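Box 3.1. Reading complex inputs
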Amino acid sequence: MNVGVADLGTGLVVGLGNRDRGDDGVGPEVAARVTGLLPDVRVVEHEDPTSLMDLWAGEDPVVIVDAVRSGHHPGTLVVVEAGADAGPLPAEPWAPTGRGGTHALGLAAVLELARALDRLPRRVVVVGIEVAAVGHGVPMSAEVAAAVPAAVEAVVALAEPSGGGR
Amino acid sequence: MTHRLTESGRVLQVDSLARVEGEGAMRVEVRNGEVTDVELRIFEPPRFFEAFLRGRAWTEPPDITARICGICPVAYQMSSCLAIEQACGVTVPEELRLMRRLLYCGEWLESHALHIYFLHAPDFLGYESAIEMARDHRDVVERGLRLKKAGNALMTLVGGRAVHPVNVRVGGFYRLPTRPELQALRPALERGRAEALETVALVAGFDFPDFEQSYEYLSLRSEQGYPLESGSVVTSGGSTFPAAEFGLHVTEEHVARSNALHGRLHGGDDPYVVGPLARYTLCSDQLSPLAQEAARAAGLGPTCRNPFRSIVVRAVELVYAFDEALRIVDGWDGAVAPAVPVPARAGEGHGATEAPRGLLYHRYRLDEDGTILEAQIVPPTSQNQASIEADLRAFVQPRLHLSQEELTRQCEQAIRNYDPCISCATHFLDLHVDRS
């Protein structure tokens, strides 16, 4: 869902996830809260990582907010530099989010596919929030809800056109 | 990959089954060299949504059910619209049926292009994933992206946006695209059609395991073209019935290990199959001449019984979807209201359409002010689940001599034959092969 539109090239924030799935909705929630804080940055909520390659064409920097499972405590923020200027992602921390699926590609797969096809923006930062509850229709867990303000702050610092966070 | 011991013997656990996402798990049990059990656990969202829909207004299911799947939202919207409209005694005009069909073509293009190029082709070409494939076959992967993008453009124009279209409503659309807007898509659709033909040629050259199954096939069939947004239900066993009688012929059975319900046809124990193989076998005469020619050139006969060849049928369906989209775009004059009124009334309605992965059935019961009293959703994957397990049972036994890694890879490929919708958004699948 486009929740804010600006000219291309001034930065992009994508909140990935499904609001019907408890903590998996944290990406869209953070994106919604970032909207308006960065007037020149395009902020988008999305569910399908495969669309990223079209969404981020011409954009730099790109900040992606997504739910992750990497073995940390729920609510932990994990910030990973994943753009063309950074090296390939280490396989292991990304395994839990999968490198793809039976009918979709996972975030890590899309990042690496874009790298292989030279379609990866120079700077892509993934802000991951460790999740606890992802059942259908369950509310966001207290730990993840408590992490949202810090995630918003991190995203704003990383996506600011002034180059904040670099 | 980690090894751990359990009381039942050695269990090899693959922490993330490559290119399989969703919440689910596959477990193969082997005892004394015999496959004794195969389980594909699937946790499906429709049960949650059925409960969520009760008490909501009759106008809401297209928007609510679109959220069930990020890959096939149009299927959920179309089946729910048909069911609600039937309950309210409304049939949309032919122009709106065609616009729905056009939107559905966009979804098929996106879904099939993704599955063929990014999920299934790497299996056949021996790559771990599309990433490795892209390094050696950049042009092929770029073509897949262009095909997907053409579907995306169609979804965005007709549906309002590419994921979870917002332009669909009970009774039609909020806004119809204009003829110039549709004509602007022509170059991409024409190029897509040519590249879909190249896709058929590519996948027809893959090596297919010698593996055939005799399951009953079930799909819609329509005299208005290859089945997408409407039709009656037909089976390879010779049954024909309207969507309203779906519940009389297909029963759902709860399986303890999963919260998914397994579909059963005519109360029998044998699996039945929905999806590309069923559609092709039951409706190939309804394909456009170009798609029929592509099917013949790819070596497909009047039926297709090898699930591994589903990738070829998907490619043929890509050709058809482009062909059909161009036909609708060229015939569109836009002189129709975007929607017809659908006044609430007490009643029950049924809707069935062809999602990319097979027939999707919805049923709603409404009270007189349109409040939903009951909702039922039968997705394609729960109908195919028994056949996926039966395939694996037959497939694994003669391949037990393979290494764990190779066996796992081939099992994944066999599961992907059905393009199963395990669950969107959260991404975990564990594979266990348990050999005592």
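In summary: Chain A is about 25% helix and 20% strand.
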